[in-house]
Every structure is written in structure tokens, then in C-alpha cells.
Design brief:
2 copies of one chain form a homodimer.
Chain A: E1 6-8, E2 11-13, E3 21-22, E4 25-26, E5 31-32, E6 37-40, H1 42-59, H2 64-80, H3 82-93, H4 97-122, E7 129-131, E8 136-142, E9 147-150, H5 165-172, E10 177-180, H6 186-202, E11 210-213, E12 215-216, H7 218-225, E13 232-236, H8 239-251, E14 256-259, E15 265-268, H9 270-289, E16 301-305, H10 308-323, H11 334-347, E17 351-354, E18 369-374, H12 375-380, E19 393-399, H13 402-410, E20 415-421, H14 429-439, E21 443-448, E22 488-494, E23 516-518, E24 521-523
């Protein structure tokens, strides 16, 4: 059988001893696509790690300008091949070509790469700190090995392991990448890796800077994230897979950054329901149904207080869930996973208001699903009732009063986002200050009066949050330059002779406008 | 039997069901001290965690000025009680009263507390980041629970779990602390905890802000660091204990910061040996013997190139090790631990040049110990030959040539520090650039021409490094405000109404001179 080639150690080549193979599936037709992709065995993995380690050493000597040019050139190449990329990503994911893939996700991807280039060139990201009186200087710098990246299925470009946010951040911080293609879109990933590798060659980066494999045996994935020559790993996907990688990496003392699961609670305070119930319902449904509900920040939990206005809100929302045709899911098992999650919710006491089943169709689909449960039940089964159903499936919790709403907030697990809708003229302000202190420390991003989907790529973004939303509450996966800090180590220079210091720590500002903390002051000046 | 009281939930009280007891020992006389200290059982631990969680919630509403005043008042109280503290610390650790305890460590401790107060008051540490166009704002803020701190035996004040660097950083970042006293100096820790608690009451902080226990069962230590209501943990001590805590915390998704072991390699290039052999020997011996060698940054590994000048250097150093009386160790098992480590080094191929044995004395002592091994042997047993002997015990590695020196650097495990001595007029510069790229990513702090002991408390300090020196290469345990970032989470506010934002993120600069990153520029201005 003929397999697609992998990119290892600067070569597109056959895998050495394939441990199996797979085909991608078009979720719109449930038909397997013709290309055969190999599952890598141990020899390939070890060779990739070795080549990545070598590239990590070489990359430290490469001028940051070349790193920046690589990222920009890669972005340009993605734009040149936009039609081809959109076409194959659409076939592999069933995500709409327009506006989603072509007009939203692809520009976001190239925008991220260019922003990463600016950060690499500008160097302020490394937080150079100089205490001149004692001549001690420090900065964040690249890790001592490649970053292995496991991308998710729901963003074939913007979170792709070879073009997405983790990739851009890892490379901009000066690290090589070993990308594991998501099994849902190997063809898209192959083209992106080809373009990235062209850009590697054209900017004369070490050839091992970008490597790409499709799939490997689970035990080899664990071996990779815990290998002594790996710098760090990044994973976006299911909690069960993420926790296994985390355990292996932790035991070896290797940093691993995970984005695993989130139900993104939305608290709607009584004044807001009275004031603008149908507006909020419309907005929320849009957020719930966006991308067939397969967004990390999808609002999976909606908390209201009991009363006639809330019942009307629930009826409106339920009608929207029932009457809107479901979207196509990303994968063959997507509908089963949703049905399984719904079963857990129901067995913990939730009632179905809409949907709950797979759709018999030639496409991968599940019904839009809405459930409800009372606050007391939620509080007594908080873990089960925070089960994530990855699709257009949300659970409404009806609390007795604001105290119970508070208790619900207090049993929230770590989430990426938490939202509070409140009366625009302030009638909910007292209640806000009851909920907010409970919700705030349990979420990465706290929102007011807007839906959590749509993660802006800005420097103040936090696409992160407490465990189990991620593995560490101090880091963000989106937003530059913050996301680069995951792939960096703190390097201090004590009494090091001036000409031996990295440019970022020499007396003279290396760019003329890099921000540095000198003797307690942020400044762009020389010393 | 009457036990000393623990400080739990705002009360000095008896433990509920003591799981045992212990006495401190005066290392100068090997005599047990009279006070009986209890080993806490589960009930006490759970009550402390619960009280800490409550305090964490309450502390979020306390003005930062009060936190700062607490830290300053505590420093003042330590100064008032300096004589008493120095006296008991001397009895419990045998560290010299002067200059060490009174003139060095105590001022360092109060200096750290005051610097932490400045950071809490100034707020620049929280790295407020504002993107005004999209109204997304973020900052580092306190964790969702208390920080448990396990202090080491070698700094009864400056790294004490209830007064040291971790304590100051955790509190300044807004977290309550559960301090586990080191078993070596419980009496010192008790007095410090009393002073801290007085300061808590006088500044009207939540009473659970500072709690202190002496010892608990190992399984309860693991339970504490992995408890859902713990914010994070900090540990300084042996690798074996640290790794157990790390495993438990990791499995629960709780941050844990460890400082575990380091041999702090010192590379002496040939030109430096030719130029100033005896100066370097004198300086290095001082660093090796300081505090009876019981410093985390003690130079345990010295790498030279073969040749007559190096042999002379080794003879000089060996003579210093042999002729200088050994210092008193911190604990009864200190000498055995050194002898055990030396046995591992010898069985891996090292030869004794000086010492190697316990000293039969009324004090806890081991001979000053120097060993040597050739480069080839080191490279073939790199793990065993990096065994840390916590005392005045160092291993000299004699390399054949600069390539072998490079290979030695390339098998270094993660270390806190790495040092390169080179010719002052530059004759070693070529060799420097061969060693440095290997050493740099394997150490937290890289030094030129000075010894690694003496960790300045400045903002550019990195007292950290790659695993297994610590558990994460991106954080420092010493140096404010950097060390506070370990005890903080990233909190983002998206479209949150202006009056609901924390002061640090409102349009108006809350102090007038706090540094904030606004639209890509570090500034002290309002928006």
C-alpha cells in the first residue's frame, strides 16, 4: 500500500516501519477519502526528536530577523494557496468554505503568523530584565529541544499543529516544532507542512525546524512528550487524551500545555432576563450553534433564576434549538460522543428540552440538544453535570434564587470562560457582586453581556484557565506575545562579559525600540 | 506529653489527634532539645486547608496597601526579636550567629519582606495588559486557595516557610500561606509564625492568612498539595521528597514549584588556570565551604583540562580541603548523607583526593571531601557522577581537551547555576563559545569568573533552572517581583463594565506610577 509521506529531519519520506494506516473521512458524506496516511513507529519518532534537538541548537544562532521572515513567508504562501487549502479543509472537516474557512479562519491564521513574526523581530516578548548595579541580566529564551504539538480537529488552519497558534508561538520563541497532524484533516496539514517547509528552505532555517507526522501509536505519543530531548509539548483536544500526555510529561519533568475541556458557564441575572430575554436568547443560540457547537468556548451551561421570565427565555431558546437544522459535525464519532455526554447529563438528573439523538443522515450530525436541570440537582452532581458535549448541546440550570446561583458558581470546575449577563441599567449589580467572586477565580476569561465564542488574538487575551480547562492557570494559548511564554525558559546572566551577552541583554538596545525592564523601569533606552 | 501548639484557622492550639511527635536536635552537640513538637493528623490538615481557602476568598477584597503593611510590620517585628531569633536558630542549626545569622540572613529576610511589600503596593508585578480597542484587559492575580510551603533546613530565616522568599512572594501576590516548618528548626519557625500572626492581627488581615504546622505524615503532605482547595505549593529540599510531592500535585492538576538539587558545574578554561590558578582555588574553596557547603548553589562539580597547571590547581584546592577544619552540618543525618553520596561517586569511578568520611565528634560533621574523575568516565556515568553531596564535597572532572569539556557540558542535567572561568585578556574566548552553547540551556543562571553562591535578591535573578533542578524552567524562586508569578493565575476581563474591573485594569492608573502594557506600550499613564 502506498502511503503519504511524512516530513522528518528535513526530508519528505516514507515512514520506516508503519505501525498501521488510516484514511480521512468527509463528514458531509461519511465517505473515506482515497489517500492512505501512515501511523509512525518508534524509529520515525526517535529520528524526529533527534533532528528537532539538533535544530533547536542551531536555531539559537539564527538571527531573529530570519525567524520573523520565515513566519511571514509562510503566511504569504498560505495566502497564495488559499483556494487549495480551503477546498481540502472543507472536504475533510465539512466546515463551510465561506465565510468560515476562507474569510475568517484563514486570515486569522496568517494574521497570527505575522503577529508572531512581529514579536520575534521586536523581542519585547522576552521580558529582558537588567539590574545594572549588580550586573545581573535575564530574559526568556528558547527551550532545550523541539516543541511537540498535537492540534485539535476543530480549526484546520488556526489551531493546526503546523500553522496555528501553538506553532506560531513556539517558532517565534525560537523553537523547532514536531507537529502531529490531527487525524481529522491530514491532507490540509500536509499542504500546510509543505508550505512551511518551503519557507524553511527559502529562509535557510535549520531543516529540522518544522517536522510533521500524521499519527503514531499512543505509547509513542507518551514517549515523545516525555523524551529527554523534547523541550515542551502542547495539546488541544479531549480531556482523556490530554491527561495521559500530561501524566507522561509530568513524570519526566517536561512542560506540557493542555487545552482540554470547558463548559463555559453563562449566568443570566434576573434583570437581564426581564430586560432583553429574546435578544440574549438569539445571541446565545448563535454562539451555541456556531461551528456546529464545536468551539472550545461554546456556552455549554446556562444558569438562570426561576420565574416566568426565565421560563419564557427557556421556551424561546428551546424553540431555536428545535427549529434550526443541525450543522455537520467534524468527525464520524462526533454524534455518538454527544449522545454519550447527553446520557451522562440525563442520568445525573437533567431533562431533555430539545434534541438528544443522532440524526440519520448521509452527514455526521446530531440534533441540536437543550437540557434543563434544577439548581439543587446541579449542586449535588456538579461533576457529572459539567460533562462537555462537544456540539450544539447546552444545559440550562434553573436556580431557586441568587444564593443558589452563587452555590452553582462555587462548584464550577476550571473553565476557559465565564459570562455574566446583567441588566444594562444596573438593577442586577448587587447580584453581580455575589456571583463574580465565585466565578472569577474559576475561569480564565470573564465576560459581561456578550457570548464567549470568538477569541480575539490580542495581547490581553487569555485563552486558558484553571485545571481541568488547561494544565496551568498562568498561561494562555491565544494572544501574542503571551502565548510564547509557554515555550520559553528563564535564562539569567550573572557577571557575564558584555560581548558574550545575547543582543537583548547588552547595554545597547538591539532594535532601538525593544521594551526592557532596566533597574525597575520599563524602557526602550540603552543603558 | 505536652506538645508545642500549631497555628491553624487563626488559633494557636493543640493538634487534634497527634500522629506522633519529634524533638529538634542541636547539631553542635547532637543533643535533643527539650520541646516536643507534634506531628499533625488528617483533621488538622483538612482544617488548615479549609481555613486557608476561606482566607483566600477574603484576601481578594483586602486593599493591597494592607498586604504591604502586613509584610512591613512583620519585618519590623523580626528586627525587634532579632536576638531571640538568632539565638534559637543558632541552637537549632549550628549556623554561626555572626556574621551569618544576624548580619547576613536576617537582614536579607527583612529586606525580602519589604521588597515584597513594595511589589504588592506598586502592583507592576501583575503585568496588567490592556487592549483598549477591543476592551479586553488581563492581569496576574491570586490563586483560588492557599499556598502550602515546605521550607528547607539550610536557611532558617531567608527560606523559612513562614518568613522566607516563598512566603513573601505568595503573600505579596495575595495568597494565604500554610507553612510546614522544617523539622530542623521548629523553634525558630514557631517564633517567626508568632510574629507573623501578630502582624496579621494588627493589620486586620483574615486570620487564616498565615497558618503553621510542624510536621505531618508523608501521605498527608501528598494530600495537601493535591487537595482541590489548595492554590499551589512550593517545596525546597531533597529530590526524593520533592518528586513525590510533584507527582501528587501533578495528578491533581495543582501547580507545584520545586527546588530540588543542583551540582552547579564550574568550568575553568585553560587560560584562566594558567593566569590565576591560586586565586580561583581560594575563591572556589570559599564558595564550597560556605555554610559547611550546604547551599543550593554550592559548586559540586569543577571541570578543568588536563595539564600541569591543572594538576597544580587540583593540589592547591585539595590542600585547602584537607587543611581546613570542617563546619558543623545542619542535621544528624547530614554526614551519613554525604558519605552515601561519596560512595556513589566512587563506585562510578571517582577517586578521593581529600576527606570522604564522617568526623567522630560531638558535633554533626563530615570531612571536607574532594574527588576527581577523568572526563571519559564522567561521560559514561553522567547520572551517578552528578549525585549531589550536600556539604563541602566537590568532584573535579579532568577533561582531555576542549571537545571533551564540551561533551561533559552536554551531559549536564538541569542545574540552578553554571559557571565559566576564562582568561581575563580573552585567550579562552574561542573555547568559551564551544562550552557556553551546551551549558546555557542546562542552567538557570550562567556566571562568568565568580562563584555561584550568594544569590542576590534582585529582579533579574533566576534562582531556578531546568528539571531536575526545579520542576519548571520558566520560574524563579528568588528575586521580586518575578518569584510572585509562581503564585498567580492569569485573569482576563472581556467587555467587563468599567466599575466592575479591578483597580489595576481600570482606565485610571491606580497608583499613578504602576507599569501597565496598554495597546502594546509599557506606560504609567491613564487610558
Amino acid at each position: 500500500m502506498k502511503y503519504q509521506k511524512v516530513l522528518i529531519a528535513g526530508k519528505w519520506r516514507e515512514v520506516k516501519n508503519p505501525a498501521g494506516h488510516f484514511n480521512a473521512v468527509n463528514p458531509a458524506s461519511k465517505q473515506a477519502l482515497p489517500e492512505n496516511y501512515p501511523v509512525c513507529g518508534e524509529e520515525d519518532i526517535l529520528e524526529a526528536i533527534q533532528a528537532g534537538k539538533k535544530a533547536a541548537v542551531e536555531l539559537r544562532r539564527v538571527p531573529r530577523e530570519r525567524l520573523a521572515r520565515f513566519l511571514e513567508l509562510f503566511a504569504e504562501k498560505i495566502e497564495v494557496h488559499a483556494d487549495e487549502l480551503v477546498k481540502i479543509a472543507h472536504i475533510e472537516t465539512a466546515l463551510p468554505k465561506e465565510p468560515r474557512l476562507k474569510n475568517v479562519e484563514l486570515p486569522r491564521t496568517t494574521g497570527q503568523l505575522r503577529e508572531a513574526a512581529r514579536a520575534a523581530r521586536g523581542r519585547s516578548w522576552c521580558r529582558a530584565t537588567i539590574d545594572s548595579a549588580v550586573n545581573i541580566r535575564s530574559m526568556m529564551g528558547p527551550l532545550d529541544g523541539p516543541v511537540s504539538i498535537f492540534g485539535p480537529n476543530n480549526f484546520p488552519f488556526a489551531f493546526n499543529s503546523v500553522s496555528g497558534g501553538d506553532f506560531a508561538a513556539a517558532v517565534a520563541a525560537g523553537n523547532p516544532v514536531i507537529a502531529k497532524a490531527n487525524t481529522g484533516h491530514p491532507g490540509t496539514t500536509r499542504i500546510l507542512a509543505e508550505l512551511a517547509f518551503e519557507a524553511v528552505r527559502e529562509t535557510e532555517l535549520p531543516l529540522g525546524t518544522v517536522q510533521m507526522i500524521y499519527r503514531t501509536l499512543p505509547e509513542l505519543g507518551l514517549k515523545m512528550v516525555s523524551h529527554p530531548d523534547i523541550g515542551a509539548s502542547a495539546f488541544t483536544g479531549t480531556k482523556s487524551a490530554g491527561l495521559k500526555l500530561k501524566e507522561a510529561a509530568d513524570m519526566a519533568g517536561k512542560p506540557v500545555y493542555l487545552e482540554m475541556s470547558s463548559v463555559n458557564p453563562v449566568f443570566i441575572l434576573p434583570g437581564a432576563v426581564e430586560e432583553r430575554s429574546s435578544d440574549i436568547a438569539r445571541e446565545l443560540f448563535g454562539s451555541c450553534a456556531m461551528g456546529a457547537g464545536q468551539f472550545c468556548t461554546n456556552p455549554g451551561l446556562i444558569i438562570v433564576q426561576k420565574g416566568e421570565a426565565s421560563e419564557q427565555f427557556i421556551r424561546t431558546l428551546s424553540e431555536m434549538f428545535s427549529s434550526t437544522p443541525p450543522g455537520t459535525l467534524l468527525s464520524l464519532n462526533g454524534a455518538d460522543d454527544i449522545v454519550d455526554a447527553v446520557k451522562i447529563l440525563i442520568s445525573a438528573g437533567a431533562q431533555l428540552l430539545a434534541g438528544g439523538n443522532k440524526v440519520e443522515s448521509e452527514s455526521c450530525m446530531a440534533e441540536n440538544t437543550l437540557l434543563r436541570v434544577d439548581g439543587k440537582t446541579f449542586i449535588s452532581h456538579p461533576h457529572e453535570l459539567q460533562t462537555e458535549a462537544f456540539g450544539t448541546a447546552s444545559l440550562i440550570v434553573v436556580a431557586n434564587d441568587i444564593r443558589e446561583m452563587k452555590d452553582i458558581a462555587s462548584v464550577m470546575e476550571g473553565n476557559l470562560t465565564g459570562t455574566i449577563y446583567s441588566h444594562l441599567q444596573g438593577s442586577d449589580d448587587e447580584d453581580y457582586y455575589i456571583i463574580e467572586p465565585e466565578l472569577r477565580p474559576r475561569v480564565g476569561r470573564l465576560l459581561n453581556d456578550k457570548t464567549p465564542t470568538g477569541v480575539a488574538v490580542v495581547s490581553a487575551m487569555n485563552h486558558g484557565g484553571p485545571y481541568p480547562a488547561t494544565g496551568h492557570p498562568g498561561f494562555t494559548a491565544v494572544g501574542l506575545p503571551g502565548s510564547m511564554l509557554r515555550f520559553a525558559a528563564l535564562y539569567c546572566y550573572d557577571n557575564v562579559r558584555p560581548h558574550r551577552l545575547p543582543a537583548e541583554l547588552q547595554d545597547k538596545n538591539p532594535t532601538g525600540d525593544m521594551w526592557r525592564m532596566i533597574d525597575g523601569e520599563w524602557t526602550r533606552k540603552d543603558i
